[in-house]
Every structure is written in structure tokens, then in C-alpha cells.
Specification:
Blueprint lengths: L1 H14 L4 H15 L6 H17 L4 H15 L8 H15 L4 H13 L3 H27 L3 H13 L3 H15 L3 H13 L3 H9 L5 H18 L2
Length: about 230
């Protein structure tokens, strides 16, 4: 029920206007509503504004940049609408790639955009990067699964965390921790998972077991700041 979904998500954005995820979800709702309309430009424009709101609260969220780029690309396909949407879409895709250069999904998104917007040469080069990034990712995953040891579990956990599968990442970090003992990187991985889950108390307890390096402190406090900001505090 997209009408109710829109109503409740709008209420959520008013109650906690600094949580970028609420704006991101609202943009997704507008995209779904656009698919049901003969003239979908009204809802695509709404999705653009919500992605901008999300990025205003969190400029480093690559998924919001991808969503914004996709919306601009849809507007570019309407020739009667004035605007430099092709350039805006390409810049947004580039922003997402800059944030996560090895993510083959982002590369593939831009490659498809370039192909469909008339730049076949650059698209071909981009698809080659996609193929290379995918092969590397599969290679790392295959290598990680070859041996059942702490390092393998740590690699799988790192890949899961990069894919935003936080529950899977936590499971494998815990398995690596059980085998490797006091491994600083594994404990940091668990700490990052707790912060992503907004489990601040667990994160602080995990932090107490880490060596007090400046890198650990800065990551902890930056992540805690993001958690509190998302909660509206």
C-alpha cells in the first residue's frame, strides 16, 4: 500500500529529519509510485528531492548517490523536459564510484547509463572495469572459502560487511575471533558491526578490549557520532 507507506514515512522524516535513511526510503516509495503512472515525472522529481535530502544528512552514502543518478537518468529519457540531466546523472554515478571504487555494481550502473545515453566507447571501457572488479571479488571469496581458518572467516566477514550484510559479517567475525583470539582487526570488525546495528553499549564494551590506538578511537567516535545523528540526537 504505497499511499500508507508514503504517509508513515513522511511522518518519520518529520519526527527525525536528520535520519537520511527515512528520506532514502521515501525516495524509493516515489520511484515505485512512478512505475504505476503514465506520466511518471512528478514522482521522479519527488524522488530526486528526497535523495538530495538524504545526501544532505549523509554525503557519503553511495546508495543515495546511485538512487539520485538513476532518477536523473529517468528524467534524461524524457526529451520534452529541459535540464542537463545526463550530466547530473553521470556526476552522481561518479560520486558513488569515488566512495567505493572497487564495487562492481556501481561500475556496472554507470556502464549501463553510458551505453543507453549514447557513449558506447566509454561504456565499453567501463564494462571491462566491471568484469575485472567482479573477477577479483569472486577470487577473494573463493580464496576465503578454501581454508577453514581464522583468516578465511575474517575475509568472508570483510566481504559481507562491504556488501552491507551486517548479520552475516558479525557471524563470521565471531567465528574468526573464536579461532584467532585477540586479533585487533577482527575485534574492530565486530565493533563496526555493533555500531551499524546501533548497539552502542556492546560497541563500547568491545572497544575496551582493543589497544588504545588513535585509529581505533577516531573510528569509534566517528561511528558513534553517525549513529546518534541518525537517531536524531
Amino acid at each position: 500500500d504505497l499511499e500508507k507507506a508514503e504517509c508513515f514515512t513522511l511522518a518519520a522524516t518529520r519526527l527525525c529529519r536528520f535520519n537520511y535513511l527515512y528520506h532514502y526510503k521515501l525516495a524509493d516509495i516515489y520511484n515505485k509510485k512512478a512505475q504505476r503512472q503514465a506520466d511518471s515525472t512528478q514522482y521522479i522529481n519527488k524522488s530526486v528531492e528526497r535523495y538530495k535530502e538524504a545526501l544532505h544528512s549523509n554525503t557519503i552514502d553511495a546508495w543515495s548517490w546511485i538512487g539520485l543518478a538513476d532518477s536523473y537518468f529517468q528524467l534524461f529519457r524524457y526529451p520534452l523536459i529541459d535540464g542537463n540531466f545526463r550530466e547530473l546523472a553521470d556526476n552522481a554515478y561518479k560520486k558513488a564510484i569515488d566512495l567505493d571504487p572497487s564495487n562492481w555494481y556501481y561500475l556496472k550502473k554507470r556502464a549501463g547509463f553510458l551505453l543507453n545515453s549514447g557513449n558506447a566507447g566509454l561504456s565499453s571501457r567501463m564494462y571491462k572495469k566491471v568484469s575485472n572488479a567482479m573477477s577479483k571479488s569472486k577470487g577473494h571469496l573463493s580464496e576465503a572459502g578454501t581454508f577453514i581458518n581464522g583468516e578465511s572467516y575474517e575475509k568472508i566477514a570483510d566481504l559481507a560487511f562491504a556488501d552491507q550484510d551486517i548479520n552475516k559479517a558479525m557471524v563470521y567475525y565471531e567465528m574468526a575471533d573464536a579461532i584467532m583470539g585477540n586479533n585487533e582487526n577482527v575485534r574492530l570488525g565486530q565493533l563496526r558491526c555493533y555500531l551499524k546495528m546501533s548497539r552502542i553499549k556492546d560497541a563500547l564494551l568491545k572497544y575496551r578490549g582493543l589497544m588504545s590506538f588513535a585509529r581505533n578511537k577516531s573510528m569509534l567516535f566517528a561511528s558513534m557520532g553517525e549513529c546518534y545523528l541518525n537517531k536524531g540526537y
